[in-house]
Batch of 2 targets.
Target 1
Amino acid sequence: MYIMFTFTELQILCAESIFLKYSLALLIFIIIKQVWSRQFACSGNEKSQIEKKVIDIGQSISIDSTNDGADDDDNDYNTNYVDDYKPHLPEREHIPYGGLTECLDRSGELFYKLTNDRRSIRKFNKNKPVDIGVIKKCILTAGTSPSGAHTEPWTFCVIQDAQIKRKIREIIETEEYLNYKQRMSRQWTADLRPLKTDFIKEYLTDAPFIICVFKQVYGIRSDATKQRHYYNEISVSIATGILLCALNAAGLNSLVTTPLNCGPAIKNLLNRPQNEKLLVLLPVGYSADDCLVPDLQRKPLDQIMITY
Ligand SMILES: Cc1cc2nc3c(=O)[nH]c(=O)nc-3n(C[C@H](O)[C@H](O)[C@H](O)COP(=O)(O)O)c2cc1C
């Protein structure tokens, strides 16, 4: 009633004053425009943000599909792919997964104790033999690793032959001499000083086994075309971590070694194909009775974990 009255009053006033009439119309127009533009400016903004996200994702997808997760070093291998867009795995049914059948202990304590005992060993017992059956089992374990698109891009070369071990040692000691004397920065050699490492590598001939872990930068199909191996380095690194744990769990010691500039010569020596690249080399055996290790501390949980 009150509004009606006011409205009627306004009508009379507007009829009497043209100025008031047009001012009122302008005011109503401005209010409607404001409400309208707020409504649509908001959804337009959201839309443009989503569009921007989609464009960003689109860009990263296109980068990923050419990069394959391979590092720069691998670019020479990442050419001349013949994409036929058929999956490398045959299509297969999905089967029920019943959960894990084995468990060490539900608290995680046992596995922690086991891995916390692991140390990098640079002095092996050359008189204590290692059963190759155990090495095979550990490599089988490493082969359970997840891998990009299940490409399983790893090759584990197991060397027991004394002559090949000697050749590997020669290759590595020659390169490491240059690495320590010329190639590595002074900071790098300073960082290694507490570990007391140098270019002499007796452990390479003392250890009963050397495992050379190769990453397959790409696969080779039966028709000789190249198959992409997505994230091959990450996949092989995870597999190597599993291998280290498996060796450790079997009571064997090892040492991750990554000697600079030795990959091509070792690859050549072992006659590995062009698609493979040496990732790491592990001497494996039992530690010598007089083996020493640096007294290192590991970071506590609160320095390596952040909870959200
Ligand atoms: C990627 C990687 C590369 C390594 N390269 C070498 C190496 O070339 N020579 C060596 O004596 N130790 C090497 N190590 C061993 C480290 O020095 C060792 O893991 C580190 O000092 C910690 O000691 P721990 O393994 O006993 O816990 C390497 C370890 C990793 C993970």
Target 2
Amino acid sequence: MDRKAVAEPPPGSPANPIPLSRSKKTLEAYYAGKRLESPLGGQLDVLGIREGKTGVGKVMMECNASSLRFVLSIPKATKTEKADIKKKIEAGEDLFCPRHVDEQRLSKSGKSWICALCGVSYGKS
Ligand SMILES: [Zn+2]
């Protein structure tokens, strides 16, 4: 057997961020615009948000104490959220993120309406 050691980037490095627990409390704090606590002490600074392929958003963060990288997965839009946004699109209303506490406008990316802070698509038009 040829056992080639695959050099995996160490957990917490930019190429291999540590997944944060997707607890309700963590997500609620994120939607409220609060800075999240790092599991290692210190706080997490948001570096950027990516749109996941399956509708899941990825928030890349860095711990300001350890400089380790973390990633928070934002659950994809629910049927209820999508139905609600669809109604608003049809009514020509302004679109806001259904989760963020402060009014966060959805922005158009291709055909999708995305929350720039969630990385989640809440509707299409
Ligand atoms: Zn949002």
